[in-house]
């Protein structure tokens, strides 16, 4: 079966199912095979209620003791039932918005439930556990069952069956990595690894399969970086720029002085833009370290030298905020900017006016989102491209924007703190500047790491801050219903939060599956103080700047990487008010609490990233997924740091033996990656 064959050619996949697959970007057999499980469910033997351990997902079997009790709190239906086992021990079962279970759960009936064990005092309880018959559960016991990202109407069982069908026709054994690499780094074959990722026989086989495919991801990514670096090193500077009176006057008029670190980086930018070769630089700075003002200075120097600059933001709300801030600078300081805004939600007339100003050169600073790289946008003299928060853009989008100029200078800003040992590998195509200090006027954020029993107090604290005129974020890690019993659904969680807070508190939610227009509307309303508490998945990591927000509460904090938690924390502490971060962990295991305490004791992102790297061992297949600018499908730059280093060495070895990638093995590799690479930050067209 060819990779490009439509998914509806698989037995059992009709037009309706194919349409559902399309909603998760699965259109071909190859897409389906590369739709890897997001995790694996293990069904351990049921335990007695006495043996249950708070913070663990476990199964219990017993008898319902009485008719379940149902009550309503505002729009939320809450059903409580008591399960007693053979030893006479009891556990409370709580279900939200499932009143029909009152007719299903019969007093005296025996049932098996699986979910997160929680405890308040001596009282054990489970919320939203899954219910099984004894036979159903025992059939699953001891197996590693893949669980896939789904959409409404598409079941996990359907995906499993379809993947099994597709794998039956996967190409016969063929190796894509060059023999010179495989001899030095023995690993599973490509085909066996792909099969084992979907249907592993054991944890050991799954780890070996994952290691192979992670190596492939890293190898392809780093190979392109190396080739890009070679090209960048030869790129002539077509737009030499020098400091003018505008930048000097702007710096003198700013109400705050640059930090030593900012001054150092500003010197590096000036040197780059005046050198014989085009700038290709990354500014790596902690949240709140002052990266944006340096980007404004670089763009101002560009405008003052008679050229155009473009600043690409990851969200419309942030693009608008940048535009308003810079427009304010123009009015206040009389600087040489003629800014224009360009976003996807603008009317056709507004876009036409913006296009005209950009093409004629009337606008010398263009601020926007992905709309900046549309075909209709023609620049007059694009000399500098700034991408804000790199991790929402791949290399491809950056290059598309850069291609609209004649090899312009490129400046990338990232708030992701990466330990230097990894940064040297991962930023192989860029020169790196680091801002390693915060402005002196920043109030340090106060942190606390607590268990679930603290949640009611956290709600009280949020209510108190809202009453004082402040705002709060609450982060939940998942949104898909049924993805995991122990992770809160954002929508259900919002209802519970509304019930727990005073009726006057305005609560809204935000998650990655919402339409862009709805996301923008919610973020704008939060920025305008129409919403007091925003419940969200991690889509707010880079999406918004609200100085009035003073509380960040993160549920299931143990499920996030420390660097990601630190970035989330950076959404507060941006204004004049004292800010707080509350990390709630469902696991009170020593290792978990030790890891989270790093955040409690430090607000330094680089220190946190280094400590995270020390604590998190390789091959943590069921553990934390780091989100961020390196959007690998399987690989994680922290837990897989050893594989990253091996892949980096392997790229070096390949390019020493075949610098131009012209050998048969190398050509086969490049052709394979061009068609199949699963790394969405790689563009193999550059090779």
How would you concisely characterize the structure shown here?
This is ATP-dependent DNA helicase RecG. By secondary structure, the protein is α/β, with parallel strands linked by helices. Strands 2, 3, 4, 5, 6, 7, 8 and 9 form an eight-stranded mixed sheet that branches.
Counted by DSSP, the helix tally is 23
Binned strand content: 15-25%
Annotated CATH homologous superfamily of the domain at 233-435: P-loop containing nucleotide triphosphate hydrolases
Number of strands: 23
**Structural class computed from helices and strand pairing:** alpha/beta
Task: Give unreliable regions as ranges.
Answer: 479-487, 617-627, 678-687
Shape: globular
Estimate the mean pLDDT confidence.
86
Top CATH class of the domain at 233-435? Alpha Beta
Rg from Cα:
27 Å
Major sheet characteristics? 8 strands, mixed
End-to-end Cα distance, whole Å, is 28 Å
Catalytic activity: ATP + H2O = ADP + phosphate + H(+); Couples ATP hydrolysis with the unwinding of duplex DNA by translocating in the 3'-5' direction
Domain Helicase C-terminal: 454-614
Protein name: ATP-dependent DNA helicase RecG
Pfam family, one: RecG_wedge
């Amino acid at each position: 079966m060819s990779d490009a064959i439509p998914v509806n050619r698989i037995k059992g996949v009709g037009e309706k199912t194919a349409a559902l697959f399309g909603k998760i970007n699965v259109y071909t057999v190859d897409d389906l095979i590369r739709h890897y499980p997001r995790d694996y469910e293990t069904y351990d033997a049921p335990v007695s209620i006495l043996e249950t351990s708070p913070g663990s997902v476990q199964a219990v079997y017993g008898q319902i003791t009485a008719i379940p009790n149902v009550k309503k709190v505002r729009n939320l239906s809450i059903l409580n039932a008591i399960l007693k086992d053979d030893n006479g021990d009891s556990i409370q079962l709580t279900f939200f918005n499932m009143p029909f279970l009152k007719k299903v759960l019969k007093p005296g009936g025996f049932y098996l439930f699986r979910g997160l064990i929680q405890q308040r005092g001596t009282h054990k309880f489970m919320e939203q556990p899954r219910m099984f018959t004894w036979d159903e559960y025992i059939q699953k016991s001891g197996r590693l069952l893949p669980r896939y990202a789904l959409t409404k109407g598409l079941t996990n069982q359907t995906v499993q069956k379809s993947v099994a069908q597709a794998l039956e026709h996967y190409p016969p054994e063929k190796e894509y990595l060059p023999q010179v690499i495989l001899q030095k780094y023995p690993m599973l074959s490509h085909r066996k690894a792909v099969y084992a990722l979907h249907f592993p026989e054991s944890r050991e086989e799954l780890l070996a399969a994952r290691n192979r495919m992670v190596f492939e991801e890293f190898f392809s990514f780093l190979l392109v970086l190396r080739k890009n670096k070679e090209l960048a090193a030869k790129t002539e500077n077509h737009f030499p720029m020098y400091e003018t009176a505008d930048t000097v006057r702007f710096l003198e008029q700013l109400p705050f002085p640059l930090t030593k670190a900012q001054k150092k980086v500003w010197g590096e930018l000036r040197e780059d833009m005046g050198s014989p070769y085009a700038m290709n630089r990354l500014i790596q700075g902690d949240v709140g370290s002052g990266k944006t003002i340096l980007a404004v200075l670089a763009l101002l120097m560009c405008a003052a030298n008679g050229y155009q600059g473009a600043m690409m933001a990851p969200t419309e709300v942030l693009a608008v905020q940048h535009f308003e801030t810079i427009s304010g600078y123009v009015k206040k300081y009389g600087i040489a900017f003629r800014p224009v805004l360009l976003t996807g939600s603008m009317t056709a007339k507004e876009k036409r006016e913006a296009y005209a100003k950009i093409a004629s050169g009337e606008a010398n600073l263009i601020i926007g989102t992905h709309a900046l790289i549309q075909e209709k946008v023609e620049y007059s003299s694009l000399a500098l491209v700034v991408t804000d928060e790199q991790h929402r853009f791949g290399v491809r989008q950056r290059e598309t924007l850069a291609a609209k100029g004649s090899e312009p200078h490129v400046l990338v800003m990232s708030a992701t703190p990466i330990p230097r040992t990894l940064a040297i590998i991962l930023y192989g195509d860029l020169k790196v500047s680091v801002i390693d200090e915060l402005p002196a006027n920043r109030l340090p954020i106060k942190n606390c790491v607590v268990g679930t029993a603290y949640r009611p107090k956290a709600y009280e604290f949020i209510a108190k801050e809202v009453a004082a005129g402040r705002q709060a974020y609450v982060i939940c890690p998942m949104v898909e219903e049924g993805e995991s019993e122990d992770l809160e659904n954002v929508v259900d969680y919002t209802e519970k939060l509304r019930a727990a807070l005073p009726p006057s508190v305005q609560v809204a939610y935000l998650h990655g599956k919402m339409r862009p227009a709805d996301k923008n509307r919610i973020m704008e309303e939060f920025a305008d103080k129409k919403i007091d508490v925003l419940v969200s998945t991690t889509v707010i990591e880079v999406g918004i700047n609200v100085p009035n927000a003073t509380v960040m509460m993160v549920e299931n904090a143990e499920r996030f990487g420390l660097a990601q938690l630190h970035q989330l924390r950076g959404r507060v502490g941006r204004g004049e008010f004292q800010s707080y971060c509350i990390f709630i962990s469902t696991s009170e295991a020593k290792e978990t609490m030790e890891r989270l305490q790093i955040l409690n004791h430090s607000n330094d992102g680089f220190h946190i990233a280094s400590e995270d790297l020390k604590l998190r061992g390789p091959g943590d297949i069921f553990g934390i997924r780091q989100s961020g600018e390196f959007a690998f499908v399987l690989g994680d730059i922290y837990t897989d740091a050893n594989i990253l280093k091996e892949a980096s060495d392997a790229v070096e070895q390949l390019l020493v033996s075949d610098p131009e990638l012209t050998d048969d093995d190398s050509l086969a590799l490049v052709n394979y990656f061009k068609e199949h690479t699963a790394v969405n930050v790689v563009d193999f067209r550059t090779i």
